[in-house]
Amino acid sequence: MTKVIALTGGIGSGKTTVSDILKKQHIPIIDTDIIARQVVEPGSFGLTQVVERFGSHYLNTDGSLNRTLLRSKIFNNAEAKKELERILHPLIQEETLKQLENYKQQLPPYIVIAIPLLIENIKNKTTRPGYIDEIWVVDCPEEQQIKRASKRDQSNRDLIKKIIAQQASRKERLSYADHVINNNGSLKVLENQIQTLLTD
Ligand code: ATP
């Protein structure tokens, strides 16, 4: 039986790093960040909906979505954020389930769905999505998240701190974890931990 894992964690915690390690083990990865971009590609139903709701000034001159502008619009506007989610979430879910069904045909032992904002999306609901068997949370201390994310993005610490404050708290995220992947050490330690998790 295939086990479907939802992989999540805060900004800079190491989700991509963990996904890359899992990919090397030939585990299929469904990346909802990639899907979130695909559903608003030029010519898509999603983009048409976004433009209908928010206006054509959210388009770049080449017809693609101006993400930076839209991100700043929803950053401090909870209602706009909700409306955007109402448009995008069903489309992202539909594509995720399509990929999941396709991968299941290959009968792999695991399929991983990387969902960065999983906890933010399920915390007000009574149940988690039925297609998820386990939640794996990538975790490290906040200071480590700030250091790693600011170094990677060449962005300042304050911005990362603001994003962390908007995300689910570490404690809340951990309360949903079926497994915690502790990413407070070296890459080697991380790899060994994942290996153990997969052979358990
Ligand atoms: P985001 O939510 O911002 O997309 P993420 O959770 O996917 O971030 P990564 O991109 O995997 O996090 O990691 C953030 C940065 O920290 C990257 O530059 C990555 O190479 C580095 N990093 C992650 N884990 C480790 C580790 N154990 N040792 C050293 N560097 C690490």
UniProtKB/TrEMBL annotation:
InterPro entries: Depp_CoAkinase, P-loop_NTPase
Membrane-spanning segments: none
Subcellular location: Cytoplasm
Catalytic activity, as annotated: 3'-dephospho-CoA + ATP = ADP + CoA + H(+)
EC number per UniProt: 2.7.1.24
Residues binding ATP, per UniProt: 12-17
Keyword Amino-acid biosynthesis tagged: no
SUPFAM superfamilies in the record: P-loop containing nucleoside triphosphate hydrolases
Keyword vocabulary terms for this entry: ATP-binding, Coenzyme A biosynthesis, Cytoplasm, Kinase, Nucleotide-binding, Transferase
UniProt enzyme class: transferase
Pathway: Cofactor biosynthesis; coenzyme A biosynthesis; CoA from (R)-pantothenate: step 5/5
Pfam families on file: CoaE (PF01121)
An MF annotation (GO) of this entry: dephospho-CoA kinase activity
Major place of residence: cytoplasm
Role noted for this protein: Catalyzes the phosphorylation of the 3'-hydroxyl group of dephosphocoenzyme A to form coenzyme A.
Record family assignment: Belongs to the CoaE family.
Protein name according to UniProt: Dephospho-CoA kinase
Organism classification: Bacteria, Pseudomonadati, Pseudomonadota, Gammaproteobacteria, Thiotrichales
